[in-house]
Amino acid sequence: MHDLHDFHSVAFRAAQRYGVAHENRHHAREPGAAKELNAFTTYSINALGPLRVTGALLPQLREGTTKKVLHLTSGMGSIGDNTSGGAYGYRMSKAALNMGNRSMAIDLKRDGIHAAVINPGWVKTDMGGEGAPVAVAESAAGILAQLDALSAKISGGFLDYSGKQWPW
């Protein structure tokens, strides 16, 4: 059985099967391995990181009066809205966060805790660039407004900073 957990193993088996020369095999797999490692790191930070923080704060959330969790996602985490492709690791990490939050919203409902993911929009930041249409202050104000509005009806949803529902 082939080890699908390791990029190098998959690349080696593919090279054996399809006759790629040894020296080409070595060089051809390096960029893929680097991208895979980057995807694992991105997933750990973007998908698991928010769930870890929320898990660590659950005792305080359960005892608190404002029982809300809002995870910052991205429109790039929407499968239904993906029309441009690319950015595999980033997109997959945000889609995984979305699923984790949706499950969390269901599981924490019994504790009266509401959870949702929010897309801050395409914001003028280092990542968004100068061409982005949304100012940081506008996005931040919108995120806080959506946090205030978060209720049982919205819990488990995928919103943007203006309150618009996003496709999963």
Account of the 3D structure:
- The protein has 168 residues and is mainly α.
- The chain has a domain at 50-160: NAD(P)-binding Rossmann-like Domain (Rossmann fold), CATH 3.40.50.
- It is built from 4 helices and 3 strands; from the N terminus they run ααβαβαβ.
- Strands 1-2-3 form a 3-stranded parallel beta sheet, with helices on both faces.
- α3 links the parallel β1 and β2.
- α1 packs antiparallel against α2 (22-63) and α2 packs parallel to α3 (88-108).
- The radius of gyration is 20 Å and the shape is globular.
- The model is unreliable at 21-30 (pLDDT under 50).
Secondary-structure map with pairings?
Layout: H1 7-18, H2 22-63, E1 68-72, H3 88-108, E2 114-119, H4 136-149, E3 158-160
Parallel strand pairs: 1-2, 2-3
Helix pairs in contact: 1-2, 2-3
Précis, in short:
With 168 residues, the protein is mostly helical. The protein has four helices and three strands; from the N terminus they run ααβαβαβ.
